[in-house]
Amino acid sequence: MNTKAIEIAAEPYPFLFDPAVCALLIIDMQRDFLEPGGFGEMLGNDVSQLRRTIEPNRRLLAAWREAGLLAMHTREGHRADLADLPPCKKIRGRAAQSIGDSGPMGRILIRGEAGQDIISELYPLPGEPVIDKPGKGAFWATDLHAILQHKGIRQLVVTGVTTEVCVNTTVREANDRGYDCYVPEDCVGSYYPEFQDYGLRMIKAQGGIFGWVGRSDTLIAALKPI
Ligand code: TIU
Fold it and tell me: What's the domain range around 72?
């Protein structure tokens, strides 16, 4: 495993990847967002746009674990009594079924329900922190920042779904807290191809205003022993 920072290909310019202070943060790869028959599909979304990210994430997570680096996972979800669910989030969209209602895989986006859990392909190992978040950003109302500070983390590789919603919100939150973020484009997905494109362009525009965009094979190659 490399212990020194190494320059890897990225846009808008090469990223100085330092494995010793870098964590992998996999955002919301949950059954309800990705599985056919889940809440996402129930709302009319094309889950295949998200499912293409499973295999690249699986390979990256395997390489990350092999290198002995910190991997973390998030899940969007709420308390069973909905005490942490903003009323506006509950009614937004005017859908027939919303958060907390009975859905295809248990109560929709409620912690502990089957649909709220992480897909089996990327299931966390014991010891890998799982952050349950009530919002789109992984820092809001969670202990993510505290955990990263205690572990001396200064860089994040952010993957998961969806590119323009929870991934972008988290990258922006991380950027304001002083973390450098690298987003491998093959490991993030949107239900909408045009938002995938613009979601990534917004991160790397203006000299990398929120971070860097690259690819997972670039990271995996950098993790190989020297
Ligand atoms: N994880 C995440 O992005 N939550 C969403 O609600 N995303 C949508 O794109 N709706």
Answer: 7-223
